[in-house]
Amino acid sequence: MKIWEAVKKVMEEASTPLTYVEVYEAIVLKGYYRFKAKNPQHVVNSEIRRRCENLDIPSARGVKLFARNPDGKYTLIGFQAIDTPNPLAEEENEHFRLEQRLENAHEKYISSFKKVLLEELKNLTPYEFEVFSKNLLKSYGVEELMVTSPSRDGGIDGEGILKAGLSKLCVAFQCKRWKGGKVGRGEVDKFRGAIQGKFDQGIFFTTSTFTAGAKAVSTRVGAVPVILVNGDGIVDIMLEKRCGVQQELFAKYSIELDRMLIDDMT
Q: How many CB atoms lie within 10 A of CB 131?
């Protein structure tokens, strides 16, 4: 927060004319700004005067925020007594309340949507989940993807080629469309045994989760690394890559007039 912003905030909260000394004391009391100047009260007075209407000084700013009363105290421009209705202020308050409710509702919606999406994945057939995983890898740039025939999979559900700089990595993937239970270390070891010496990397997809033991052996010295992707991770990838979901946009605006006033406000 800048000094003039702290001054404005104090005056808004006070709702009464203040001297620059009172403004300074309120800023310090509420911790809105940490002064490093030798004479901070003078700094506050200068910041107010630079943005005070009807004061033509060399350091004056183009946008005026404050007005000086005959008694030497300052107020915000357009200051009104507390008991005087201000329809515009009420409208602004209602706008921010609606905006906050919208953001809270959006967070709940995303959380709920992820749960529903994961349940849809769990209802796929094992083969459908393999095809789904293949297409999910395609969004990451894996090429020459194929799903292995069930009768010849040898513990591998599919494979493809991933470009990594000037080289290419042969990757294999395994899919466990589970509705319950956790994928354990044995499943990961079995998958690694099927790809060791044949592939550069393994990717293990599950709609469930992995046990601590499975996570512990996902990377081992001298062994093919196996990337573990659980149900929540799959859903996050879907939203990130817009795979299997469609984003419907609605307009939400924020006021950023300060970008238009940068020469005056800095």
A: 16
